């Protein structure tokens, strides 16, 4: 145990304190932090920001490790001792980066920690859609036997279009290529990276969409990527095409996607992230049998969870020890804030 709880009051024994916006992280990360004179405290996932802010203020935390929930300006300003925010992962759309920057507090990401895991989940979702696994499963369980009328789609020779070619996009491309898929990439910030790996780079999303059998999202949520995939762009895709999003909710306009699926504009979609998390129980998406939904767990495997926690812990330790933040990992205010 890293702390004791007595009538709701937590007592640490070390010289420095951090708060984790979740109820757990990997034990090896806790041990590492403890070894560097840092106590670890927890705030349940998706607690309201004002509750997290109150805990941060009461504990006078030196660092914040972000897993889930909104880390807004109130949370960031709550402790005058706060010196570093580290993301347990790579997406920072739930952190007000601009507010942190105003206070001179770096926001650091665990770069590369979950690339393989998310890519695996992407391919698993894409294959499930292409092979129509869920509709067939439901049909058989209803007592139907669609074998006489069913003809499946081939993965070999299918084209997958990737929007974004960072660590996750690159891993996804390699796996797709190994399955015999043709890979095309749109990434305006690194077009040469895909070409260097032997893949086709396309500068215009609209030009790419009509050719893809699978569209897979791997870009961050920013002011320019919000609602990037809307009704107009969905209308440019093949009726037989499917869409996978293991990046961030908000990149796809969910209302437009629901209408596109209901109307047969595209054949199916798989979402691991949503504009609001947890998503509303009355979402029109839930009525659609051509949708697969998972609860933003693409990067949550035993291996990646350990890596995310340890890298985040190392960022915190380094900054609290007086070192400059790792420039490759720092999130800038140009990225979308919470």
Automatic annotation (TrEMBL):
Domain D-isomer specific 2-hydroxyacid dehydrogenase NAD-binding residue range list: 123-298
Pfam families: 2-Hacid_dh, 2-Hacid_dh_C
Superkingdom assignment: Bacteria
InterPro entries: D-2-hydroxyacid_DH (IPR050857), D-isomer_2_OHA_DH_cat_dom (IPR006139), D-isomer_DH_CS (IPR029753), D-isomer_DH_NAD-bd (IPR006140), NAD(P)-bd_dom_sf (IPR036291)
An example Gene Ontology molecular-function term: NAD binding
The keyword rRNA-binding is annotated on this UniProt entry: no
All copies of domain D-isomer specific 2-hydroxyacid dehydrogenase catalytic, residue ranges: 19-327
Keyword Transferase: no
Keywords: NAD, Oxidoreductase, Plasmid
Alphabetized SUPFAM superfamilies for the sequence: Formate/glycerate dehydrogenase catalytic domain-like, NAD(P)-binding Rossmann-fold domains
Record-stated family: Belongs to the D-isomer specific 2-hydroxyacid dehydrogenase family.
Name used for this protein in its record: Hydroxyacid dehydrogenase
Organism listed in the record: Shinella sumterensis
């Amino acid at each position: 145990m890293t702390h004791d709880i007595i009538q709701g009051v937590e007592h640490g024994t070390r010289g420095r304190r951090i708060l984790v916006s979740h109820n757990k992280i990997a034990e090896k990360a806790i041990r590492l932090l403890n070894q560097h004179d840092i106590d670890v405290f927890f705030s349940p996932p998706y607690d309201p920001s004002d509750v997290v802010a109150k805990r941060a203020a009461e504990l006078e935390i030196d660092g914040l490790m972000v897993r889930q929930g909104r880390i807004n300006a109130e949370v960031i300003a709550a402790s005058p001792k706060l010196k570093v925010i580290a993301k347990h992962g790579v997406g920072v759309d739930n952190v007000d980066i601009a507010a942190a920057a105003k206070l001179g507090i770096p926001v650091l990401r665990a770069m590369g920690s979950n690339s393989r895991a998310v890519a695996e989940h992407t391919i698993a979702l894409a294959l499930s859609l292409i092979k129509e696994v869920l509709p067939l499963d439901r049909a058989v369980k209803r007592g139907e036997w669609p074998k006489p009328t069913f003809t499946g789609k081939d993965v070999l020779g299918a084209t997958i279009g990737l929007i974004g070619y960072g660590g996750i996009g690159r891993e996804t491309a390699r796996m797709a290529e190994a399955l015999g898929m043709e890979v095309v990439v749109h990434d305006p910030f690194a077009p040469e990276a895909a070409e260097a790996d032997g893949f086709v780079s396309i500068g215009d999303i609209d030009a790419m969409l009509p050719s893809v059998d699978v569209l897979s999202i791997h870009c961050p949520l920013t002011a320019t990527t919000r609602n990037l995939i809307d009704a107009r762009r969905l209308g440019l895709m093949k009726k037989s095409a499917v869409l996978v999003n293991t990046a961030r909710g908000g990149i796809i306009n969910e209302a437009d996607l629901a209408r596109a699926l209901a109307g047969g504009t595209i054949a199916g979609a798989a979402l691991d992230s949503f504009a609001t998390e947890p998503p509303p129980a009355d979402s029109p998406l839930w009525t659609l049998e051509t949708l697969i939904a998972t609860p933003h767990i693409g990067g949550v495997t035993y291996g990646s969870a350990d890596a995310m926690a340890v890298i985040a812990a190392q960022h915190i330790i380094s900054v609290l020890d007086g070192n400059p933040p790792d420039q490759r990992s720092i999130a800038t205010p140009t990225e979308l804030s919470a």
